[in-house]
Amino acid sequence: MTNNKEFDFQGVNHLALVCKDMARTVDFYTNVLGMPLIKCIELPNGMGQHFFFDLGNGDSLAFFWFPNAPDAQPGVSSAAHGVLPGVSAHGSMNHVAINVPADKINEYYEKLLAKGIKASRIINHDDSPMQASLEMTPTTFVRSIYFYDPDGIALELAAWKHARHTGGCRREADACPGQSALSGACEVATRQFVETRRRVLDHRAGGMAHELSVRFPGEIFHRRFSVHARQKQHG
Questions:
Q1: Between the CA of residue 5 and those of 13, 92, 180, 187, what are the distances in Å?
Q2: Whether residue 22 is found in the same domain as residue 44
């Protein structure tokens, strides 16, 4: 039940992505991740294929195969590759997060490794300054494992620690231009993700870039992002 008074939205019907090799994609999603292939459509005029996997909960994950599609462009059309998905262009699909039971995430991490999948450690997203930790904290709201499919599409297994996280959201009429006339205020994306994405973007114009090293306990992974640094103005 939602509070949407305009449309009776009932969740995501399907996401449609693009693959390079249909057989390879079907093998990965059915034999590695166990998703049943439920529908396959041959597009007219030799345009390619469109096929669907059962994602659970009535949702589907779909793919197109186009014979003459351009090559992938990580960091532009999809997430830049790293232990965690990186930046991608405006309008792109950065990653697909799949809900899993909280009490299964440790088991699923081991299962991915046993299947030969190169996956991140379990990342505990929280309200700490780095907004993530390898250890559970009192503010942990979702636990995640990140990995990639054969085309480099970033996937996430995500387990909510609570029924639904709402902390860190602001309700400000001015936050969404043109929405102040609506009753109440628009929902703004959680501060954690907004601030993280803003930090890793490289805004070179009008400033200088420097390296931000993100280190987690035990140096399990080490990422370097180019971030914008503003010069201080002295009077």
A1: 20, 28, 17, 15
A2: yes
pLDDT in tens, 82-96: 888 989 988 888 999
DSSP β-ladder status, 48-56 and 59-65: antiparallel
Q: Are residues 147 and 169 in the same domain?
A: yes
Whole-number Å distance between alpha carbons of 144 and 21: 27
- Decide: pTM greater than 0.85: no
CATH number at residue 159: 3.10.180
* Total domain count, the chain: 2
Q: What is the CA radius of gyration of the chain?
A: 20
Q: Which pLDDT tens digit goes with each residue over 140-176?
A: 999 999 999 999 999 999 999 865 544 554 444 334 3
